[in-house]
């Protein structure tokens, strides 16, 4: 007896009231033979206290196809792209480079308010874009103009967006370089870092549910990978088995923060296995390596309904933006090394020359032609007026609510009274 009349009604009392058998031996188990049954991980028991060192696994290798001289290293990895496609890769990269130079200078002259160049990262944009289907949905960060360039987005629309004129698809509401194009399946850029990552996962999950046979690709930098949205996106993509490619441009700097201060682990690709995501690290200055990795990731993401993580190692040769002076936190020698010794455009040019598909005369002619094309679009954009101020109130509600209509009327009265204080001559009537 337990000495408690009510004890038999609970588990403790029930056990206490059972007859004792001193000669019955308890069944013995070896603690190491017993298999863990915890639902949260797949593992074995050990009997020695040991923390896992962060460097227990050697660094993930960097996949490349071409060396810096444009020579194929392993013939079995050569994508054997036709001449026309390789030339499109090259012309897209160089046209982007030309546009960058002109728009950067236009901002310095006060013609546009802001700009971000893509110097040194052209191979990551164009190599990945070439490996996608045209209907695959793109979520960019703010340095993926080359993806749109490869998808034949007109120069006139690039310029219109940066000038915010009446031809801008966004009607002048976004700051420069925040492109978007529904027809080319490129979701409008949003300034806050990493917000596009969980959004892209949601789009990929919807595509999976609809059996759309399409992949979503989401671009971001190594700095954005430190945001909480990156964790949420990776985890949701893995657990929901979404056909998505996470494409990280690891360019060495998050504005002024170098990777040595951004993380202590082995980059971004090393995080993938922890989420259950297939991962690879590639040479982002090798357009063929980027192409091969993205092509295979796309094939498997659609066929197997699972996410993939590509970390493209590259270098941001330009300043972060026109609001940044990178000489304050890195040396000119460092920048010149990457510009002169390992530029993705130079590497692909070496390949074209070695194949006999390009020569110096063609190079000079194309440089002249590309500059002319950009300048024509630039001059056209400058001549166009900005959208009518009344458009500030449209495209939110199907039918404008009373409060918003009152605001619109208030603005109209204000401009009618004080219009001489505003540059209304630059706006569409």
UniProtKB/TrEMBL annotation:
EC number: 1.2.4.4
UniProt xrefs under Pfam families: E1_dh
Gene Ontology process terms (BP): branched-chain amino acid catabolic process
GO cellular component, one term: mitochondrial matrix
Cofactor: thiamine diphosphate
Entries under Gene3D superfamilies matching the protein: 3.40.50.970
Keyword field: Metal-binding, Mitochondrion, Oxidoreductase, Potassium, Thiamine pyrophosphate, Transit peptide
Top enzyme class: oxidoreductase
Highest taxon of the lineage: Eukaryota
Domain Dehydrogenase E1 component: from-to ranges: 90-389
Localisation: Mitochondrion matrix
Record GO terms (molecular function): branched-chain 2-oxo acid dehydrogenase activity; metal ion binding
Catalytically driven reaction(s): N(6)-[(R)-lipoyl]-L-lysyl-[protein] + 3-methyl-2-oxobutanoate + H(+) = N(6)-[(R)-S(8)-2-methylpropanoyldihydrolipoyl]-L-lysyl-[protein] + CO2
Role this protein plays: Together with BCKDHB forms the heterotetrameric E1 subunit of the mitochondrial branched-chain alpha-ketoacid dehydrogenase (BCKD) complex. The BCKD complex catalyzes the multi-step oxidative decarboxylation of alpha-ketoacids derived from the branched-chain amino-acids valine, leucine and isoleucine producing CO2 and acyl-CoA which is subsequently utilized to produce energy. The E1 subunit catalyzes the first step with the decarboxylation of the alpha-ketoacid forming an enzyme-product intermediate.
Assembly notes: Heterotetramer of 2 alpha/BCKDHA and 2 beta chains/BCKDHB that forms the branched-chain alpha-keto acid decarboxylase (E1) component of the BCKD complex. The branched-chain alpha-ketoacid dehydrogenase is a large complex composed of three major building blocks E1, E2 and E3. It is organized around E2, a 24-meric cubic core composed of DBT, to which are associated 6 to 12 copies of E1, and approximately 6 copies of the dehydrogenase E3, a DLD dimer. Interacts with PPM1K.
Similarity annotation: Belongs to the BCKDHA family.
Protein name: 2-oxoisovalerate dehydrogenase subunit alpha
Gene: BCKDHA
